Structures are given as structure tokens and as C-alpha cells.
Amino acid sequence: MLRLSISLLAVLLPALLTGCEPGTTASGSTSESGSAGLSLQLQYNGAALTCDSTLNIAGKPWALQQFQLYLSEFSVNNTPLLLDPTLPYQQANIALLGAVCDGNALNSRGNWQLKFASALPSGSLSFTVGVPQLRNHQDPLLAKTPLNQSDMFWSWQQGYKYLRLELAGKASDKVNSPQANAWALHLGATGCQSASVLRAPSKACAQPNLARINLPFQRGQTLQLDLAPLLHGINMSADNHCMSDINRLSCQTLLPRLGINGKALGWSMQ
């Protein structure tokens, strides 16, 4: 019996160690069948960005409070790709990535991993930052994950927040309120017309604000987003938030950098 147990352990131990090895699913496998996984790494000036990182913007220190975004409509070489719908945070054609900071840690809603229904081949990878129009206006209380997160939703009329970035000033300020040391960018559709905010529009919004990203991809690479090019030169203040309003000066700078009628900045494959 002892000899049998030792033999069984010798068979199982390598498999257990392989399953626990960090990074084995984050950026793909090098097996012949390819990998169905792809991770997103958030960066600032080329360094990994986490909840306890300090972002030096215009000489002031800032901390990440929340970064989440919806990615949808994946394809490689113009061939549609489906996600694995059995996993949390994703359906067949849409996924929610990112996290909300809780102290210096990522809370239980954090997710930085995409998993596709089949192996992800090398080629020209394309995806949309945002929620497709046909699914953008619904009741989040009845929606399935990941479209049921209420803080990523504006209203039936406007739909979802495609991307939510919120920062907080790290320096103490005894004069200004906490709100004065906060800054936010929320990307979503605008110019949506309906009878009320509780009604879905009957036609597409005037500004859908959906950004299409195209990147050359090789098996084993990681999807990266560096926030530094996006935030460069932005005046971080409470009265300079961007809620996708094209009439605000901050949005006139940020929206093109996000890929709305401009070239999206910060995206790469490494």
C-alpha cells in the first residue's frame, strides 16, 4: 500500500505543480494546439500599474481607484472569435476586465484574463472597447454577468460605461474636500434619444463612442494598455472630469486618444 501511494504521488505531483505555476495561463501556452487565454496588463510609463502604485501626473501623485472596461467583438484576420461563456466576467462576445481597488489590493471583482472558446491564433487581432449598440440599452438587474454590474451602467437611455477610470490624489489636502482630489474618465455613448432615461432609444446614439483596436498578435504575447499616453498633459481636477461629453475640453483631448475619431494610444502586444 505504501509503495502504491508513493507511485501515485509521483504521477500527480508534477501535474499539481504545473497547475500552480504562476503565469501559465496569463499570456498563453506554447503547445502545438496554441492557447485560448490572453491577459491584459495595465501599465503607466511602461511599468505595471497596481492599486498601490503612484502615478506622477503633472508633478502630483495619484493612485488608482478603479479601472474597468468592456471588450467585445473579437476577431483575428477578420475571422470572429468567441469567448468561453462558462466563465465569470464574460459572455460569448463580451468581457469585463479590470478591478476596483480596495485599500492596496484588488477586490473580488478583479479580472484581467480573457479566455476564448478555441485556440487563439497568431495574426491581426481586433476588438472593440465598448458594448455593441444592440446590447447597450437593457435592464442591468436582469442582465447576465458581466453586464449586471450596476456601477458600470448609466441608464437605459445612455447604456453602459464602456470604460471607467477613477484616480485619487495621494497627497493630503486640508483645504480642499476629498472630491477636489479626485478625477474620473467614463467612456460611453452620448446623444441617445428616448422618451425618458428609463427608456431605451429606438435608434443608435448620435455618438456611439465605440473604439476599434487592431494589433498584430503572436502566440504567447500579453495585451498591454499604458495609461501614460492617454493622460499626458491632462489637468487633473474635480471640474475637469470627462463623462464622454464632446463639449468638454478634457473630453475633446481624451476621446481621440481612446480611439474615438482618432488613433487609440497606449495599446500594444508584448
From TrEMBL:
Signal peptide: 1-19
Superkingdom, natural source: Bacteria
Keyword annotations: Signal
Pfam family, one: MbnP
Keyword Nucleus: no
Keyword DNA repair included in the entry's annotation: no
Limits of the Copper-binding protein MbnP-like domain: 37-244
Entry-linked InterPro entries: MbnP-like, MbnP-like_dom
Name the UniProt record assigns to this protein: Metallo-mystery pair system four-Cys motif protein
Organism, scientific name: Rheinheimera baltica
